[in-house]
Design goal:
alpha/beta; Rossmann fold; two-stranded antiparallel sheet; 25 helices
Length: 692
């Protein structure tokens, strides 16, 4: 117990040092700025369709007479937006415009300009999806959680940066917060604006940028809920001159577009001119009609198709462009290695996601108090797409199946008997199976645990893994002492060293990594990696214990597991859950190994216990210690099992790889820890047209 106390104290000191090692405001803000700059440059490229040419959209300042920021000019443009924003006092701006007007692109352009000319004392602009904000959370809590989740900023550092107002929130898409377009004072958008108006820096309003569709923002202003002390600017429609300039920069042969341009010039209020008055629609048209045959180089389609008699309304032109977008994107961007995506498959899979989001928006359904998403696709939170119960049932079945495989491994080596040890093993197995299965069902929204495996590739990352050494020494000390007292010094030393090594690496992997933008897929990968590494820890330690010490050592190991489980639960989660699993899981795995060793030899017992620990603890055990390791990722696996071809919402088995490819093809975009459709128009179109 002395070793346990010393180890836990050392682990606490190590964790405390990790939390505060990057809290120096200037250094942490500089690291965050580098990460945001890299992420937003990539986002800009994808928003522009993998191109570098933007439309220099123009905007007008719309004064409200009260609560306007000082220093706002009457108009501005994208090319000079940084200078425009810089002269505002305070620096608060609401960017509005029609759907597809380029609000997000303008905000990203502003962010990049601020970051590229940033001084060490300047705040770091960070873009957040408004739809992801639970407005019951204070602004500060939302911001710091976003920094920790998306940019791997340690929680203490994130809180310090936000408290010092070294983060400039860029709240993107306030119009996407509510399912009902008829906004009320109680709507999420209204509550968000109230909270943002109360967000202070000292005695004044804090710096802020917000984007919202014009109609929604006007509705908010009608309730007296516009942004206070801010410049409200509205993006103008793209003029014929701007459209011609954009095409000149983006296409290889402007002659092919002359008929389209002439029609826009001659009928500036006609359906074609109205449809081509936003950067989004112009980008769609260029993507479709600039396709070329990869062998001959011939253009596949001519832009004169936009002049077809049937395309005589803005809705018809919109649907025509959207129907051709996925085939064009699929042709331009080859499938990833080992996959072959057809336009029909891409349409069907994205339509399944869009239909789920659309249904959530229409019904406003909540699960366990959390509203289902209508905009964001977060992999480990996507499971309700397959129904509220089926994924949770499959999840529990996965855990029972994993433990059953362990029992089968024992029965393959040891016959069924009524011996007390065998009956005790069966009882422990039943408890260790049902408890995590119950937790998997009961925990409706499991959280992820990060285990950054990429750190193993660098020297600095490997050194950081040593942060888990105190935790490993604590576990190894307890396990080794228990075995050493009951069996002998050599066996205790062997068990202690193996436990210390593997537990230390597992704890180090779970420690915060360097600040930087992550991939939305990393959350599931890291969660699974942590769960499996924890399973490997238990498998190796209990396997050695079972093979080397027999029943007495196994009992000592089970008690040690219960103590360590309770300590872990006290530190990270629930004491009862940790102690329960540590005792039952450790006992079950150890006794299975003991039974096997008694009938098939020491080597078989060691190997069996190691295998059982890896399969069972890795899949169903880590979460029960309150660490949540592995529970979110196995829920995601359950979702994939429920969305096979026979289901009414078919998704690819490697969904993360597919969504990553869709980002490269500019069909969707990353948004924080998840994904969003490139544009709400595309999401709505796919929801209404599930088949190509």
């Amino acid at each position: 117990m002395l070793a346990l106390a010393v180890g836990v104290w050392a682990g606490w000191l190590s964790a405390r040092a990790l939390r505060f090692q990057e809290t120096h405001v200037i250094t942490a803000a500089g690291l965050l700025a580098e990460a945001v700059l890299a992420a937003e440059r990539d986002a800009r490229s994808k928003l522009l369709g993998a191109h570098d040419k933007t439309i220099d959209v123009e905007f007008d300042f719309l004064p409200v007479g009260a609560h306007d920021a000082a220093g706002a000019d009457s108009d501005g443009c994208l090319a000079a937006v940084v200078a425009y924003y810089g002269q505002l006092r305070p620096r608060r701006m609401a960017i509005t415009g029609a759907p597809g007007a380029g609000k997000t692109v303008l905000a990203v352009e502003l962010m990049l300009g601020l970051l590229e000319n940033r001084e060490p004392e300047d705040p770091v602009p960070v873009r957040l999806s408004a739809a992801s904000w639970n407005t019951d959370q204070p602004v500060e809590v939302w911001l710091s959680a976003h920094l920790a989740e998306v940019y791997r900023v340690p929680h203490a550092t994130a809180k310090t940066l936000v408290a010092a107002r070294r983060v400039l929130p860029v709240v993107d898409g306030v119009d996407e917060m509510d399912n009902d377009p008829a906004l009320t004072f109680a709507s999420r958008a209204a509550q968000a604006v109230l909270a943002l108006n109360a967000y202070q820096h000292g005695r004044g309003k804090a710096e802020l940028v917000l984007t919202c569709r014009s109609a929604h923002y006007e509705a908010l202003e009608g309730m007296g809920l516009g942004m206070q002390d801010a410049a409200h600017v509205e993006i103008r429609p793209v003029s014929a001159v701007k459209a011609r300039g954009f095409l000149r920069d983006r296409v290889n042969d402007l002659v092919r577009w002359q008929q389209v341009l002439q029609t826009i010039d001659h009928s500036p209020f006609g359906p074609l001119a109205q449809s081509m008055s936003t950067p989004w629609r112009l980008t769609l048209a260029v993507t479709i009609y600039e396709q070329r045959d990869p062998r001959s180089g011939a253009y596949l389609f001519g832009p004169e198709a936009l002049l077809a008699p049937g395309l005589d309304t803005t809705d018809a032109i919109r649907d025509h462009l959207l129907s051709q977008f996925i085939p064009a994107a699929t042709a331009i961007h080859p499938s990833p290695k080992g996959a072959s995506y057809t336009p029909e498959q891409v349409h069907a899979w994205l339509a399944a996601l869009a239909s789920y989001l659309h249904q959530s928006a229409i019904t406003g359904q909540s699960v366990a108090g959390r509203p289902l998403p209508s905009i964001d696709v977060v992999l480990h939170e996507l499971w309700p797409l397959a129904g509220i119960r089926p994924p949770r049932m499959v999840h529990a079945a996965l855990i029972v199946g994993a433990w059953s495989m362990g029992a089968a491994a024992v029965l393959a080596q040891a016959p069924v008997s009524t011996a007390p040890l065998f009956l005790l093993t069966a009882a422990m197995w039943a408890l260790a199976t049902l408890w995590p299965a119950f937790i998997a069902w009961h925990d409706v929204w499991p959280e992820t645990t990060r285990a950054d495996l990429h750190r193993l590739r660098t020297r600095s990352g490997a050194r950081q893994l040593s942060s888990g050494l105190p935790v490993g020494l604590a576990g190894g000390g307890v396990a080794g002492a228990g075995v050493g007292i009951t069996v002998g010094f050599v066996s205790g030393l062997a068990v202690g060293l193996v436990t210390a090594l593997v537990a230390g690496v597992a704890a180090g992997l779970a420690a915060p990594g360097p600040i930087g933008a992550g991939d939305p897929r990393d959350m599931v990968r890291s969660d699974l990696a942590f769960g499996m590494s924890f399973g490997l820890t238990v498998g190796l330690s209990t396997g050695l214990t079972a093979g080397l010490t027999g029943l007495v050592g196994g009992a000592a190991m089970a008690v040690a597991g219960g103590v360590l489980g309770g300590v872990a639960g006290r530190t990270f989660g629930t004491i009862a859950s940790g102690a329960m699993f540590g005792l039952t899981g450790g006992s079950a795995v150890t006794f299975m190994g003991v039974v096997t060793a008694d009938h098939a030899g020491t080597l078989a017992g060691v190997l069996t216990a190691c295998l059982i620990g890896l399969l069972t603890i890795g899949i169903g055990g880590g979460p029960i210690l309150g660490l949540e390791g592995g529970l979110a990722s196995t829920r995601y696996i359950a979702l994939l099992l429920c969305t096979r071809r026979w289901s009414n919402r078919w998704l690819p088995w490697r969904l993360g790889r597919f969504l990553n490819w869709c980002c490269g093809a500019a069909l969707i975009r990353t948004a924080g820890s998840g994904y969003q459709f490139r544009h709400r128009e595309l999401q709505d179109y796919l929801a209404q047209h599930p088949s190509p």
